[in-house]
Amino acid sequence: MATVAKLVEETSSARTIVFDVPQWKRHCAGQHLDLRLTAPDGYQATRSYSLSSGPDEAPQITVERVDDGEVSSFLVDIVEDGDTLEIRGAVGGYFVWTPRLASTRPAPLLLIGGGSGIAPLRAMWRSATTNVPTTILYSAQTHERVIYRDELAAHESATVKIHLTRQEHDGYETGRIDSRALNAAVGTGTPPHTYVCGPTAFVEAVTQALMPLHPDASMIRTERFG
């Protein structure tokens, strides 16, 4: 049982939930939690959410409300400080990045996220040291829907490019993350450890554009939702 220790409103439709979990063990960036809700009549719903906190932080998840989503709506609109939720985790070993990986196979870090798919990537950039060259490409529909807007704007040790697909806004790229943006991010030096997360259609489109540009497909990891 995890106690809600803090709630952070990221956008009008997304919030970060910080948990207090007794004897929490250090997690890896990219792992997730299984969260189970039980209604008074006994009905249960289970969903998986990526951890958005670094390994040395309290466990956190960032949830974006989905239309007609029974669990996401509850977590974004109803959960309050002090509530208790049933969780299992941390889970997962494929879509993870650790400082040990950076030391055993030194390479830059390329993080590509769409919508709330930025959540596990935040855990990665928070765990990466300043000597790991990091590039973040993030796609959101509008400026108002950019999750972690202030943190991304203040990030000093990474190259950050935010693409808005449905709006023009000063300081942001306009349009989707395309082959030109990916080619610039991959570069011509050491192939980067690359992580792509977001809605299925987003991940498929980015991966198809990325594969011809990336010299080592074994260094690409993808995670889809929806």
Order of helices and strands: EEEEEHEHEHEHEEHEHE
| Helix fraction by DSSP (H/I, runs of at least 4) | 10-25%
- CATH superfamily of the largest domain, by name, is Nucleotide-binding domain of ferredoxin-NADP reductase (FNR) module
Evaluate the radius of gyration. Answer: 17 Å
Regarding quaternary structure, how should these chains be classified? Answer: single chain
The low-pLDDT segments are none
The average pLDDT score comes to 94
Shape from CA axes? globular
CATH fold description of the largest domain:
Rossmann fold
Q: Tell me how many strands there are.
A: 12
State the CATH architecture of the largest domain.
3-Layer(aba) Sandwich
Described by strand count, sense and barrel closure, the largest sheet is: 6 strands, antiparallel
Domain tally? 2
Number of helices: 6
Biggest sheet strand order reads 4-3-6-1-2-5
CATH first level of the largest domain: Alpha Beta
